[in-house]
Amino acid sequence: MEKFTKKTAISLALLIVASILVAFGVAEISFPETFLTVTDKDWMIDIWPKSYRYNIHVGLGAIIVAAGLCIPAYKLHKDFAIRALETLFRVGIGGMFIFASIFKIQDPHQFATLVAQYQFFSTLHLDFINNFFALVYPQFELWFGLAMIFSPFVKESAFAIFWMFVSFIIALAWALGNDLGITCGCFELEDGDAHDKAEAWTSLIRDLVLIWPTLWLIFRKNRSLIKVWTEKK
Fold first, then answer.
1. Phi, psi of 30 (to 5 degrees)
2. What is the rounded average pLDDT for all residues in the chain?
3. Cβ neighbours of 70 (radius 10 Å)
């Protein structure tokens, strides 16, 4: 790699801000009531009483701004920006899948119940697959998430995670198309009752956003995160 220059420093600063905005945006879209969000905070509601209704708009806006910041970061130092983005995408997406798997592995019975609420396998008269899916799928999330971060096999890991995103998108689109008021079951094993379609929409938007950096990783060179920074062009 080239030595650390002023252009590199500016590119780094832009990418750090972009990373914060992406984290904020994803949280606003899909993880309300966390420390990363603002539209649900009392002080914001006092200023803007309807702010909580626009968390998706705010989240998407933050992600669009983040994408815009990546352009000058790339132009200032192409090599550094690509290495940094690969690192951020691998750690972010891999870490998200590891986190998503924990609750499901701990309680496969409850996850099977949440899978059943989609009524997808029931429509095909394949109800028995619900339990098999609940046991196997979280393992895929865990191990491919770990491989994304800690192994050099980024292409294979990203390919598997890409198709998991596709399956999530299909399942959520199915639920919305059939007017099912469900909880996603992506990160917390809550009871699926008494939910409206809002959570399915937010989960669908989140997955549609995150599938693109995953697709980009499929075309990256297989190498460890250490080699991302030590390997020459």
1. -125, -10
2. 86
3. 18
116 vs 125: CA distance, rounded Å: 12
Q: What is the pLDDT of residues 41-71, one digit of tens each?
A: 999 999 998 888 888 899 999 999 999 999 9
- Hey, is 95 helix, strand or coil? helix
Comparing C-alpha atoms, which of 166, 164, 157, 104 is closest to residue 135?
A: 104
Record the tokens describing residue 125, joined without a space. Answer: 């008269």
Nearest to 56 by CA among 64, 68, 66: 64
Output the six-digit token pair for 35. Answer: 């420390």
CA distance 144 to 169: 18
pLDDT tens per residue across span 193-233: 445 566 778 888 889 999 999 999 999 999 999 999 998 76
Distance CA 217, CA 204 (A): 20
Cα gap 87→149, rounded to integer Å? 8
pTM (predicted TM-score): 0.84
Mean per-residue pLDDT for 93-117? 87
Length of the chain: 233
Instruction: Kindly report the three-state secondary structure assignment for every residue of 200-225.
Output: HHHHHHHHHHHHHHHHHHHCCCCCCH
How far is it, in rounded angstroms, from Cα 51 to Cα 41? Answer: 9
